[in-house]
Design brief:
Structural class: mainly alpha
Low-confidence stretches: 205-226
Strand content: under 5%
Largest sheet: none
Number of helices: 6
Helix content: 55-70%
Distance between the termini: 38 Å
């Protein structure tokens, strides 16, 4: 399988949330600094020698201090704030990339593990049926190759991520022309759940228990009781 499962954006962790709040604060501080710098600029322009007919400028809110020095200090504070904002933003983006990478790797690993698990169950069904029917070795190999090709081609990607295992096993076996012997997995909850659901729906189809294939078999037990016990 070459394609990754559908990506779901993971929720940000506490550190990322804190950094995002710090960034918002720095952005506000930078804007406040710019407002002060503009005010100093306006005061400096108003203090410049006015034209003869210009109205007298109002007193500066900065008093009679050196407006150039005030402006330089404010500009320096703004530059430092912007530099810190940039470093935090870069760190936040790096953290997001790493979190996404780890999330994708975890999802892919879980997906591939599930694919291998389903593949093993279907292979077990193929081999069990081969023993019962005395299937030639080459036919077994053909079925196993067909199974691997279907999985590699992504034929079941729509259900492999979170579909019920029982439905997957039944679907793949049906596609391969294999009738699974569900008693192979009578200790697995997923098998019992699938068989119970199929029985209650009145549609056992290719998922019927092996003993139902035998004309002289005893009547089936209650569906909730699961597959018949292994006579061996």
């Amino acid at each position: 399988m070459d394609d990754a499962p559908a990506f779901i954006e993971p929720a940000p962790d506490a550190a990322e949330a804190r950094t995002a709040r710090q960034l918002a604060t720095l952005q506000e501080l930078a804007e406040i600094g710019m407002q002060i710098a503009r005010a100093v600029r306006d005061a400096a322009l108003a203090r410049a020698e006015p034209a003869d007919d210009a109205p007298k400028p109002p007193p500066s809110r900065f008093g009679g201090g050196d407006l150039g020095l005030v402006y330089a200090r404010v500009a320096r504070a703004v530059r430092q704030t912007l530099a810190l904002e940039t470093r935090l933003a870069e760190g936040l983006e790096t953290a997001k990339v790493e979190r996404r990478r780890a999330h994708v790797a975890a999802v892919r690993a879980e997906y591939e593990e599930r694919q291998h698990e389903v593949r093993d169950y279907v292979a077990e069904a193929i081999e069990a049926e081969a023993v019962e029917k005395h299937t030639p070795e080459r036919e077994i190999e053909r079925l196993l190759d067909d199974l691997d090709e279907r999985l590699d081609a992504g034929d079941y990607d729509d259900a492999l991520a979170d579909g019920p295992i029982g439905e997957l096993v039944a679907r793949i076996c049906a596609d391969l022309g294999v009738i699974p012997d569900w008693s192979l997995w009578d200790e697995h909850a997923w098998a019992l759940e699938h068989l119970t659901a199929q029985t209650l729906a009145g549609d056992l189809g290719a998922d019927r228990w092996r003993y139902l294939e035998t004309p002289d078999a005893a009547p089936p037990p209650d569906a909730a009781a699961g597959p018949p016990p292994d006579s061996g």
